[in-house]
């Protein structure tokens, strides 16, 4: 794979979405300003039971590989395998550029950015604000520079979509100097919410300019209040720990608990970080799994308690964001749990019935797209997200402007 000398219409755009334990990738053919999918796939459970799968646009498996259980291959080996597989599956592929999901853009990055050594250094400085994601995001960038020299790379930020939030929505009640230094609510999952905002005029045009709460429910989970397609508030804040309980993250917590853990339990910052990011959430409450599919299939009391807490927190946050919006016209479920767990959608709908929401059980079981009844005061929808396509679009647009 090289930086193409072919005309832009023949070039391709690659996308890398490196998570803490996975690496998703996509390849698109750029035909003018139109992106046509060529293949996509992932390496998952990189440090426990690595598995690689690549699929064509129709979902057919093109290549697979598994490693021995317990064989931690790391992100470097995962990316090297992906690059080798893409070269075999798409011989002679030439790249216009690579777009990367970067979780935290801080105060400085409100738009996609061409990655230079200087930009990379500034993004590395933000790693303490997203320790579960940012190091993995940037490791993929560094390795791509090594393996694919000359191919431009673009950073697309999960925080950027929320920069439209009003100042009050971004503030903590701390001395103002902290806010001015960057201690503020940033919000995350912005690439997913941006895609949903772009899809709403197509899927639900009557809702697109209204008051919408989008629910990105996956291993990481958050809610976003959309007014006319723009973010006005989010459940996540300074880091991706805030808001809902997630797969292994605690979500909202009284800061006094952290003081207690330090003063009475003798836990230092590293131990608390491990607890809050990796040992809490669905895994911590259930003692069984961070995977919602496993918990829903289990009759263990703690598994059911974890599911109930997850739904309880979602319903409470819906009330909070509806207040920020001044009412509610619709809900949109997306991401892994939101798109596939009909039982979670049903329970959330029941919890929001006080707002006039009524879920159509048959439509919900079928996966939508509209899952509310005709008599429902606000509508409910299931819209699959596509962060990788959003990243590819940003990458193509930025490189088309000469990287400015």
Describe this structure in words.
Helix content is 38%, strand content 20%. The chain contains 15 helices and 13 strands. The protein has helices spanning 74-89, 117-124, 134-147, 167-170, 176-180, 190-203, 255-263, 269-278, 281-286, 292-297, 301-325, 335-340, 342-351, 361-366, 387-400, and strands at residues 12-18, 23-31, 34-44, 51-55, 61-66, 95-102, 113-114, 153-157, 211-217, 221-227, 230-234, 330-334, 379-382. α6 packs across α15. The longest helix has 25 residues, at 301-325.
What would a concise description of this structure say?
By secondary structure, the protein is α/β, with parallel strands linked by helices.
Keywords:
about 400 residues, alpha/beta, 8-stranded mixed β-sheet, 5-stranded mixed β-sheet, globular
Query: How would you sum up the major sheet?
Result: 8 strands, mixed
Summing up helix and strand content along with how strands pair, one would put the structural category as alpha/beta
Query: Kindly, what is the distance between the CA atoms of the first and last residues, rounded to a whole number of angstroms?
Result: 23 Å
Q: Rounded to an integer, what's the Rg over CA atoms?
A: 21 Å
Q: Tell me the series of helices and strands, N- to C-terminal.
A: EEEEEHEEHHEHHHEEEHHHHHEHHHEH
Number of DSSP strand runs: 13
Percent range for β-strand residues: 15-25%
